[in-house]
Design goal:
By secondary structure, the protein is of the alpha/beta class. The protein has two domains: 239 residues, no CATH class; 89 residues, no CATH class. The protein is built from 17 helices and five strands. The protein has a five-stranded mixed β-sheet with strand order 2-1-3-5-4, with helices on both faces.
Length: 428
């Protein structure tokens, strides 16, 4: 299951990138951060702003683990495949647990449901994010919970505080669950570790590194409309995400206490005023998938009659596959290059190694490896040597990049390349 999933998702991730399909600027952000770690330097991300230290944005030092591999194989593909491997590891743990506890046939079905779940597919589709490290940790903690290996539950859970700042609260919930089942001392220690990790990240490290001296995302909770109004905004979208998260297990997960581990993630997502947090797209649901499937395994293991809920999960998952990223694997278009992608490669090949370049989200992740890359929305006062824009697909790209560069940065600029909407201009 893990191998097949890794191959499928690896092909999907690499082909999306090769076709220059626009996702977000996150892949470029993480690559610049990891490149800094690989040089044993600060994780400076110029994409977020010249000289911006990413530890002032999100507390995810775990990404430094990619640095040795990146040092050997620099480039965005290293990050994409790292995420695929981490997800495959989580799928192995969940499927192996399901087979051990439920038998091979039913366990395999549970593994397929987890592997094809919307949380996994959306995360791969959204390219690399730090939460990929949380997937195997939560799977291992969940498997240990089901098998009552409570010391292992704590051991696999506590490192979550190094994945992202909000996961410290998740660790606190796991500690509370351990206390609930009688592991009082272990539960308290785990909860305290989660609390300390959360407090240090949000109130010490992040504001200490951020130039504004504050946690950058505090304002997202409630936003301008207030917390209650934000929580109640778009109830259909939020309720849909909540129901589908449990429906893909046939709702069997609801019969396990372990399912409470999803509560912190849903709370901050629904309280945030960012609409992308609320649905089932992007990478935000990845951390929920190993939790709900381990919970479902525990529920069915303890109450075998619940196995009849699994077909419900199969039906829901089958419906969600319509139009899903995995369906693209059967499309010949995925394996064909496009004129736009070919033009983008030609333009990028004209950039000298190490040159500074201002670009848009459509092209950003393709230039960060060998160049000093800036995003046009956060470049500030820096004047780059080149500007590179996708005038047809790029987000916020100028229609006449050369003239735009002369007006914004001053001085004469010359168009070096122009084809399929891809325009490269050089400062004279």
């Amino acid at each position: 299951m893990a191998t097949v999933s890794a191959v499928a998702y690896g092909v999907l991730a690499l082909r999306h990138h090769a076709r220059f399909e626009v996702r977000s600027w996150d892949l470029a952000i993480f690559e610049q951060a990891i490149a800094g770690y690989s040089r044993l330097a600060a994780p400076v991300v110029d994409v977020k702003g010249p000289g911006f230290n990413i530890l002032g944005d999100h507390f995810s030092p775990v990404t430094a683990l990619v640095a040795p591999v990146y040092r050997l194989f620099p480039g965005p593909r290293t990050l994409l495949l790292t995420q695929v491997v981490l997800v495959a590891w989580a799928l192995y743990v969940v499927t192996a647990l399901a087979v051990r506890r439920l038998g091979s046939p039913l366990g395999a079905v549970v593994g397929v449901l987890c592997a094809t779940s919307f949380g996994v597919q959306s995360a791969i589709d959204a390219e690399f994010h730090e939460v990929a490290f949380a997937a195997p940790l939560l799977a291992l903690a969940g498997a240990a919970w089901v098998e009552r290996r409570y010391t292992a539950v704590a051991a696999w859970s506590v490192p979550l505080v190094l994945v992202k700042e909000d996961l410290g609260i998740t660790v606190m919930v796991i500690g509370a669950l351990l206390w609930w089942v009688g592991e009082r001392r272990l539960g308290v220690l785990t909860a305290v570790a989660g609390l300390v990790g959360f407090v240090v990240a949000v109130f010490v490290v992040l504001p200490g590194v951020n130039d504004a001296g504050a946690y950058a995302y505090t304002g997202n909770l409630g936003g301008e409309t207030g917390l209650l109004d934000t929580v109640l905004a778009e109830p259909g979208t939020k309720l849909g995400a909540l129901v589908l998260t449990f429906a893909i297990t046939g709702f069997a997960a609801l019969w396990s206490r372990w399912v409470l581990v999803v509560v912190p993630t849903f709370l901050w997502r629904f309280a945030g005023d960012v609409p992308t947090y609320w649905g089932i797209e992007w990478h935000y649901s990845l951390v929920l998938m190993p939790v709900v499937f381990c919970a479902a395994v525990e529920a069915i293991d303890r109450a075998p009659r619940l196995r009849w809920l699994v077909p419900v999960g199969v039906g829901v998952s089958a419906l969600l596959l319509v139009g899903s990223p995995l369906r693209e694997l059967a499309s010949p278009e995925l394996y064909r290059d496009t004129p736009r992608a070919a033009a983008a490669r030609e333009a990028i090949a004209l950039l000298p190694p190490g040159a500074s370049v201002e670009t848009d989200i459509a092209l950003l992740s393709h230039v960060v490896t060998d160049h000093q890359a800036y995003w046009t929305g956060t470049i500030g006062e820096v004047t780059p040597e080149y500007v590179l824009f996708d005038t047809r697909v790029g987000i916020g790209s100028p229609l006449e990049p050369t003239t735009w560069a002369e007006n914004v940065h001053g001085g004469p600029w010359t168009t070096v390349y122009s084809d399929e909407g891809i325009v490269l201009a050089k400062r004279e």
